[in-house]
Amino acid sequence: MTEPIQMTSPQGGSSASGFRAGEITTVNCGRCKKSQLPWNLRAFGDKQVCGECYAATLELATAAIKATKVEPGRACSNCRAMKEPRFGSAWCKITELGDERALICANFVSVQVEAARVQIAGPRVQAIDVWHAVADLLRATVGQANYDHWFAQIEAVEITDGSLILAVPDEFTREWLSQKLSGVVRHALSSAGHPDLSPDYVVEAVAARVETGPSTDEIKARAGFVPHYTFADFVVGPENRLAQAGALACAESCGTAYNPLVLYGGAGVGKTHLLQAIGQQVIDSGNSNVIYATSEAFTNELIAAIRDGSTQQFRQRYRSVDYLLLDDIQFITGKEATQEEFFHTFNALQQAGKQIAISCDRPPSELKVLASRLRSRFESGLLAEMHPPDYATRLAIFRAKAALRNRSVPDSVLTALATRAGQNVRELEGALNRVLALADLMGVEPGTDILSAVLGDRETKPDGCRPSDILQAVSVYYRVTASDLAGQQRERKISYARQMAMYLLREEANLSLVEIGQQLGGRNHSTVIYGCDRVAEQKNTGRVKDDLHALRQLVYGSR
Question: Which CATH number fits domain 467-556: 1.10.1750.10, 3.90.45.10, 1.10.8.60, 3.40.50.970?
Answer without folding.
Answer: 1.10.1750.10
